[in-house]
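Standup notes, protein team

Yesterday: finished cleaning the Acyrthosiphon pisum set.
Today: Small ribosomal subunit protein bS6m structure.
Blockers: none.

Input for Small ribosomal subunit protein bS6m:
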Amino acid sequence: MPSYELCLLFKVLPRPEITQCLKRTASKIFESGGFIRRIDNLGTADTPWKISSHDAIHKQASYFIVEFDVPSSAVDPFNNYLSRDIDIIKRTIFKVPENIPQPACTLHEELKPPAYRSEVKEMIAIGKRKREKEARKKVQFNTGLDYMPFQR
């Protein structure tokens, strides 16, 4: 199952009501076959701008981050459920990228001059390909004149 991160902005509510909101959100994750890795409470703070949600304007919100794993087919219905919850001002779901192992860097590789490092050679090759592609795209007009008549 892929990992997701959910950023939630709740209305400013008393602690028991925020707990109920989080329980509703967590139970929906569990119903869709997922599990929660972590819940972070970032506290209550002013929003960067006025946010209009469910016919109300909000200037403050309680910020939470929920990390969870759920099947990818369940993300859209879950997002739809969150959009209908009147206590949630704003919600955003991000897919957490999988950790791709990077090749280990050795001291011998780092001590080489930049022109001889493999990463730099790859970047130079990419740049050359882009320049060649741009050179092929240029259109040259053969008008027989040694100047462009419509330019000053």
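Follow-up from PR in the comments: DSSP finds four helices and four strands in the chain.
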